Automatic annotation (TrEMBL):
This is DNA-binding response regulator. Residues 3-119 form the Response regulatory domain. PROSITE patterns: HTH_LUXR_2, RESPONSE_REGULATORY. The modification 4-aspartylphosphate is found at residue 54. The keyword Phosphoprotein applies. It comes from Phytohabitans suffuscus. Residues 138-203 form the HTH luxR-type domain. One of its GO terms (molecular function) is DNA binding. The lineage of its organism: Bacteria, Bacillati, Actinomycetota, Actinomycetes, Micromonosporales. One of its GO terms (biological process) is phosphorelay signal transduction system. InterPro entries: CheY-like_superfamily, NreC/VraR/RcsB-like_REC, Sig_transdc_resp-reg_C-effctor, Sig_transdc_resp-reg_receiver, Tscrpt_reg_LuxR_C, WalR-like. Keywords: DNA-binding, Phosphoprotein, Transcription, Transcription regulation.
Amino acid sequence: MIRLLIVDDHPIVRDGLRGAFTGHADFEVVGEAGNGADAVARAEVLRPDVVLMDLRMPGVDGVAATQRLRERLPEVRVLVLTTFDTDSDVLPAIEAGATGYLLKDAPVEELLRAVRAAARGEAVLAPSVAGRLMGRVRQPARGALSQRELQVLKLVADGATNREAAAKLFISEASIKTHLLRIYDKLGVRDRAAAVGEAFRRGLFS
C-alpha cells in the first residue's frame, strides 16, 4: 500500500487527484494540504510514502517544502505535479530533492505509474522535462567525471542505494561513498539529489 499526501492550493485539483487513486487497492490517500508549510506539518504526522507536490502555492512554495521534507523526512519521496516545465521551475525542484517531476496534463495511468516508481525511489521525469534537461548546453565542470563515477551517478539517478550500487558494480559501499564525494566536488554540489539535477543540466546522461 502506497500512502499518499496530496498538496495543491486548489481544492478542485486535490479532489480530482484523490479521485484518480480511488479504486486502486495499492494506493491510500492519507491526507491533503493547500500550501507547503501545511504539507510539511502533515507529512510529519501522517508519514506518507509519496507526496504529490504542486510548485506554485502561496506562502511556502513547493520547492521550499520539498527541501524541508528532504531535511526532516528523507525517507518520504516527493513527486512534483505541476503545469510548469520551465528551467526555473524544474531545476530548483530537482535540486531540492524531488524524486520526480510530472505535468498535470499527464494521463491518469502515467500518474499512477509515476507514483509507484517514486515510491520505489526511482527518478521520474515527464518526457518534456527530460528533453529539456538533456538538451541543455553542457557547462564546464571542475573536473570531468570518470567512467566509473558516471556509472555510479547513473545508478543513483535510477534510485539505487549505496548498497545496491555497490552490488551492481561489484565494489564496496565505501568505494561508492568515495566516488560520490568526488562527484559532489567535481559538480560543485553537496548531495545526491543536487548531483543528479546538475548531471541532467549538463547533459551528462546523454
